[in-house]
Amino acid sequence: MTTGMQKTMAWCGAGFVLLLFPGIIMAGLLPPLAPTKTAAEVAQFWSTNTGLKRCGLVILLAAAGLQVPFGALIAVRIKQLEGRFSPLAYAELIATGLAVMAIILPTFAFAAASYRPERNPEITQALNDLGWLPFIMNWPAATIQSLVIGFAIFGYRGARPIWPRWVAYYNFWSAFIFAAGGLVVLFKTGVFAWNGLLAFWMVAVFFGVWFLVMTWQLLITISAQPADRAQEPALA
Amino acid sequence: MTATTRREAGAPVAPPGRRIPGEEGIWVFVLGDMTVFALFFATFMYSRGKNPDIFARDHASLNVALGTVNTVLLLTSSLFVVLGVQRVLTGVRRSAPRLFTAALACGLGFVIVKAVEWSHLFGEGKTVGSGEFFSYYFMFTGIHLAHVLIGCVVLSRLIAISRRNELTGHTAMLCEAGGIFWHMVDLLWVVLFALFYLMR
After folding, report:
1. Residue B197 carries which DSSP code?
2. How many domains does chain B fold into?
3. What does the radius of gyration of chain B's CA atoms come to, in whole angstroms?
C-alpha cells in the first residue's frame, strides 16, 4: 500500500464533507423545510428549481460513497491498535457501510419527492417525511464509529499508540452529539425537531467537524508510519 | 485535588501545580460536553423568555422535593468520589473501593428517584409532547440521565481498578479522570435543577 493511496483514502473524509454540504445546499435542504409545513407547501418546494435540486441529490450520492475508503482506513488503524483479534475494526467497517446508507436512503426519498411535481401533494409530503426523518434521526452509524475509535484507543496497551488519548475522548463526545438527532420523530417544532437548533444545526456542524478532525488525524498516522515499513495486519 | 506528591513510583509526576488533573483528553470531553449543555441552557432561557407564562405554569407541576433529593444525592456522591480519588492518589487506598461504591449507590439512587418522578409526570399525562417546557424538561433531564448511567458504569470500573493489588500511575490517572467526569455530571445537574425546579 503506497503512502499516496493511504493519503487519498484519508482525504476522502474531508472530501465527503466538501461534497455533502454543497450538495445539501443545492438540493435546497439548508435550511431544512420545517416539519410544520402543509402538504401544499412541501409540494410547492419540491416542484420549484427541480433541476438544481436533483443535481444536488446526485452530489449527495457521490459524497456518501467517499465514506467507504475513509472508513476502511480507519478500520485498518483500529486493527493496528487491536492486533490480530480485532472485533472493533469489523464493527467500524459495518458502521461505515451503515453510514453510507444513512445518506443514500434519504437521498432516494428526496429524489422521489422531486421526481413528479404534478402528483398529489400529500404523497410528496410523505416522501419528504421519509427523507427528512432518516436523514436526521439515523444516529447509530456515526455514533458507533466514534465509540469504536474511542474504545480502540482506550484498549491499546502497547508503547506506540497510533492516536493520542484525547482523540478517544473527542470521539466519545462526538458520539454523544451525533445522538442528539435521534428523537426528531417526537417533535414537529422546537430545538429537537428535524430543523431545530440542537437536532439539526448542532449535529450538522459537529458531524462535519468530526470528518475533518479524523482526516487530519489519519494523515498524521500516515506520515508517522511510512507505508513500506508499516506492519499491515493480515485481514481475517 | 492537589495530592500529587505521593503517587506510586514509576508514575510521571509533574512539578506540583503544573500537572493537569486526570489527562488532557478528559478535559477535551468535559469542556466539549459543557459547551453543548451551555447551548441547551441558552435555548431554554431563550424559549422561556418568549413564553414566560407557560413556563411558569408548567414549572409548578414539577416536584421540587424530589429534585432536591436528587441534588443532595449527586453532591454526596461527588464528595465520596473526591475522597476516593484522594485515597488513590495518596496511596492510602484501602477504603477507595468502598468510597466509590458509596458514590455509585448515590448515583443509582438518583436514577431511581428520577424514574419515580417521571412516572408521576407520565401518570399526570405530562410527556415530552406536552408543550415546550416539558419537551425541554424531558429531553435535557433525559440526556443528563444518560450521563448519570454512563457515570455509573465509569464508577463501577473505578471500583474494579482501585481494588487491584498494584496501583500504577495509569490506574491513578484513570481514577482521577473518572472522578472528573462524575463531577461534571454533578455540576450539570445543579444547573438543570436551578433552571427547571428553582427559577421562577
Report:
1. I
2. 1
3. 19
Is B44 a domain residue? yes
Average pLDDT over residues B44-58: 92
Q: How far, in Å, are A177, A202, B164, B188, B189 from residue B36 at the CA level?
A: 8, 9, 36, 11, 14
DSSP letter at A138 equals -
What SS3 state is found at B151? helix
Q: Is residue B76 part of a domain?
A: yes
Q: Evaluate if residue B7 carries a pLDDT over 60.
A: no
pLDDT digits (tens, 9 = 90+) for B141-177: 999 999 999 999 999 999 999 988 777 888 889 999 9
> Which residue intervals of chain A are DSSP H helices?
3-26, 39-46, 50-65, 67-82, 87-115, 121-137, 140-155, 165-178, 203-224
**C-alpha to C-alpha distance for B117 and B124, rounded to whole angstroms:** 11
Residues in B touching A198 (Cβ below 8 Å)? 39-40, 43
Which of B43, B147, B170, B173 to mutate against chain A (most A CBs within 10 Å)?
A: B43
| B135's grid cell | 419537551
pTM above 0.90, yes or no: no
Beta-carbon separation of B28 and A170 below 8 A:
yes
CATH number at residue B53: 1.20.120.80
The contact set of B with A (CB < 8 A) is 23-26, 28-29, 32-33, 36, 39-40, 43, 47, 128-129, 132, 135-136, 139, 143
**B110 in a domain, yes or no?**
yes
What average pLDDT score do residues B129-142 get?
91
Question: What is the span of the domain harbouring residue B135?
Answer: 24-198
The reply to whether A168 touches chain B by the CB within 8 Å rule is yes
- Could you tell me if residue B186 is inside a domain? yes
What are the DSSP calls for B4-30, one per residue?
Answer: -TTPPTTS--PPTTSPPSS-HHHHHHH
Portion of chain A with pLDDT greater than 90, in percent = 89
* ipTM of the complex, rounded to two decimals: 0.84
User: Can you say whether the dihedral through the CA atoms of B124, B126, B131, B134 is positive or negative?
Assistant: positive
Q: pLDDT for A75-133, tens place per residue?
A: 999 999 999 899 999 999 999 999 999 999 999 999 999 999 999 999 999 999 999 99
Residue A61 CB-density burial (10 A; 0-12 exposed, 13-18 middle, 19+ buried): middle
